[in-house]
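worker-03 picked up job from queue 'complexes'. Input manifest follows; two sequence lines, order preserved.
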Amino acid sequence: MKLEELAIHVIEAAESENVAFMAVGAIAAGAYGIPRSTRDVDLLVGIEMPGAVNSLIRKLSKMVSFDNQVAFDTITWGRRHVGQSRSNPPFKVELFETFDDPFVSSEFSRRVQIYVPMLNRKTWLPTPEDVIVQKLRWGRNKDLDDARDVLAVQGPESLDMSYVEKWCSLHETLPRLREALANIPPLE
Amino acid sequence: MANLHDTPGALQALQADIYREKILQARKLTLEQRLAHVFELSNHQFGMMLSGAMHRVNTQDAEIGWKEVCRWMKRLDKVRDHGFYTTTAPDNQ
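worker-03 finished. Artifact:
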């Protein structure tokens, strides 16, 4: 199986279960920054409909084996469901539930729908500004690289930097933002 | 020929040049093209990992190779997730 086949399956399952979603992680970062490989199809999923996430997990169960136990991230305590494809390669599907967090609510409300030729369908992505804020908030090495790459490829001049700075200030990640900007080489 | 690693300034300049080239190449692509690259790179990466695993465990059997790849990925997940994820719910959940 190829990653795009798994992504199509996950997107179709979310749509059929009426679960609002957007692709996050390396797929979103690669869309706006420098593409890199990943083993994950990561989705941020809405939880407006009770039981919808569990329905989505059941819908995917023929293709993806999910851990029985939900995980929590230790930065925001958001809920994360992790699954692995039943066929090789061992791709992962990670479903992150939306929750009562001002930034998560903001990024989800601002998501944009785009047509992806390789998937032959539309899907939802965060804005580049929200990818940057989210990646700087997480702050792992690959997250910081992704944030810098999105800043570099999109260019601060074409981004809503006041929005980025507002959230970075609230998350106390302005030093990370400044470092990311400083690490972009002159492009002329 | 001088070793670049002996001159940190020259090494940094080379790294900046490589990164600049990556940025400029990515800027030439559309969002859709960059997304396509993510999928292509990911599929290619697993193909390379499978080849490496089969060589590592000295087998011609792809299934055995995939088992080794899975073992690697589980170890990698443990390292990457350490400190970032827990299965213990916070007090308010």
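worker-03 released lock.
DSSP finds three helices and one strand in chain B.
The first strand of chain B starts at residue 85 and ends at 86.
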